Amino acid sequence: MSTGAMIVAIVGVLGALFLAWRGLQAQGLSVERKVRMATIWLAIIVGLVLVIQLTGLHLAS
To answer: Measuring CA to CA, how many Å separate 15 from each of 43, 48, 59?
Structure first.
């Protein structure tokens, strides 16, 4: 994966976490609950990335 693609992927993940955080704020959840939910989302995203990396799935270039 090129450096540019990695930067775009990181920005995309951070943007998704930011949007999830804002959505949780709108529901009036406590900070601890928001952190827990953000951690769960981060684990899901990282887990999916690892599965894709380990199985060798990739887009044709």
So the answer is: 15, 17, 22
Task: Supply 32's token pair.
Answer: 């601890």
Q: What is the pTM of this model?
A: 0.56
Judge contact between 24 and 7, C-beta under 8 A.
no
Cβ-contact 34, 52 below 8 angstroms: no
The whole-angstrom distance between residue 32's C-alpha and the CA centroid of its chain comes to: 19
How far out from the chain centre does Cα 16 lie? 6
**Residue 51 in contact with residue 34, Cβ under 8 Å?**
no
Q: What is the pLDDT of residues 16-50, one digit of tens each?
A: 878 877 777 777 778 888 788 878 888 888 888 78
pLDDT at 55 (0 to 100): 83
